[in-house]
């Protein structure tokens, strides 16, 4: 029986193997995947640099903004909103509390629950940080029609839903 692979040159064997395997960069949606990942990474880096003068990092800002919007949110609700585990929360919250930016207090109805709020200092710092963030949004999206921005948002929300569904199925 004739075995074509047996008689191929080394170079041809590699070509045959490449045809049999599907590489990520050969996928028609790979460019989108990479663009999303790179944009996310660059946004994090830019945000980190832009917030440095306030001595906060993007994960801190995520917490502060959520407390600004949802005063009295529980630690568990906050962790769920930010898609982080308890260990991340237990690292970040004491840092913010030590700086006098947030306060934790017990829930009147359920003693096991801790409620989070911004202090006046935390509120002021959060407002400054939100100005920085809004400026970055404006700068990075300038020239993009609102309709295009909404299409990107819908695409990302669809991606998030798929990834969360898969994550929940694994849990």
Task: Please provide a brief summary of the model.
InterPro entries: HTH_MarR-typ, Tscrpt_reg_MarR-type_CS, WH-like_DNA-bd_sf, WH_DNA-bd_sf. This protein has 171 residues and is mainly α.
Structure description:
GO terms for molecular function: DNA binding; DNA-binding transcription factor activity. This is MarR family transcriptional regulator. It comes from Ensifer canadensis. Residues 26-168 form the HTH marR-type domain. The structure is a single chain. The protein is 66% helix and 7% strand. The model is unreliable at 1-6 (pLDDT under 50). It starts with 9 loop residues before the first helix and ends with a helix. By secondary structure, the protein is mainly α. A three-stranded antiparallel β-sheet has the order 1-3-2. It has seven helices and three strands; from the N terminus they run H-H-H-E-H-H-E-E-H-H.
Helical amount among residues, as a percent range?
55-70%
Strand order of the largest sheet: 1-3-2
Main pleated-sheet profile: 3 strands, antiparallel
Distinct helical segment count: 7
Poorly predicted segments: 1-6
Overall shape: globular
What share of residues are in beta strands?
Answer: 5-15%
**What's the β-strand tally?**
3
Class from secondary-structure proportions? mainly alpha
Query: What is the string of helix and strand elements?
Result: HHHEHHEEHH
What value does the Rg take, in angstroms? Answer: 23 Å
Distance between the termini: 50 Å
- What's the rounded overall pLDDT mean? 87
Pfam families: MarR_2 (PF12802)
GO molecular function: DNA binding; DNA-binding transcription factor activity
Domain HTH marR-type: 26-168
Organism: Ensifer canadensis
